[in-house]
Amino acid sequence: MARGTMVPTLLVLLLAIFCATTVVHSKEWIVGRQDGWFFSISNWGDDKPIKVGDVLVFKYKAIAHNVVQVSEEDYNACTVSRPSPTYRSGNDHIKVTSSGRFFFICYVKTPLHCENGMKIAITVQ
């Protein structure tokens, strides 16, 4: 009788061990320089192994900046041509939910900040 319950118990235990060893821990990436999201950071993400599940943290003075997720075309032109996710808290946490290229700019009423290098393109593995 005890032998009949041992196999299912062992299978459950093995499944639990397997699940525990495949848990992926996400990483938080503070975008930009030591002082955060700022000018002249467009190549910040070039050498970062950012993965799905990681979190991008944008720190900045909320009164002066924002973060807008845009298309590649808008990124290149420093424009916001359609409704786009816009963050304004000064401590934005954006979870990466898929792989690919993602584009972010600062666009506070004018393209001036973006044109001066307050933009990044990130490749997520």
Automatic annotation (TrEMBL):
CDD domains: Phytocyanin (cd04216). It holds the Pfam family Cu_bind_like. Residues 1-26 form the signal peptide. GO terms for cellular component: plasma membrane. GO terms for molecular function: electron transfer activity. InterPro entries: Cupredoxin, Phytocyanin-like, Phytocyanin_dom. The keyword Glycoprotein applies. Residues 27-125 form the Phytocyanin domain. Keywords: Disulfide bond, Glycoprotein, Signal. PANTHER family: BLUE COPPER PROTEIN, GENOME ASSEMBLY, CHROMOSOME: II. This is Phytocyanin domain-containing protein.
